[in-house]
UniProtKB/TrEMBL annotation:
Name of the featured protein: DUF6356 family protein
Region span, Disordered: 66-85
Organism, as annotated: Kordiimonas pumila
Highest classification ranks of the organism: Bacteria, Pseudomonadati, Pseudomonadota, Alphaproteobacteria, Kordiimonadales
Positions with biased composition (Basic and acidic residues): 74-85
Highest taxon in the source lineage: Bacteria
Length: 85
């Protein structure tokens, strides 16, 4: 039960529990600050015009694209999945 609750998911993304904890806390902080910027923007539209969308793009790159690259690299897939700049 302990392994299922605390270790299965971190291992599925090639992280230890503590590595996953740090990553999840970092993502949580970035989501919180991006959400706060969106809230500020809701009240004062001229402020934080693109802060929320930039946070989403950054988080997507780190959470999804980077993890996909790591998975592909481990499997020996040389296909590039990078976004066009």
């Amino acid at each position: 039960m302990f392994k299922k609750i605390f270790l299965n998911h971190p291992q599925s993304v090639d992280e230890s529990y503590f590595q996953h904890f740090i990553q999840a806390c970092t993502f949580s902080f970035k989501m919180f600050t991006g959400g706060l910027a969106c809230l500020v923007h809701a009240f004062i539209p001229c402020l934080c015009v693109s802060t929320g969308s930039k946070a989403i793009v950054n988080l997507h790159d780190k959470m999804v694209m980077n993890r996909h690259k790591q998975t592909s690299h481990r499997k020996g897939d040389n296909t590039s999945h990078e976004r066009a700049a």
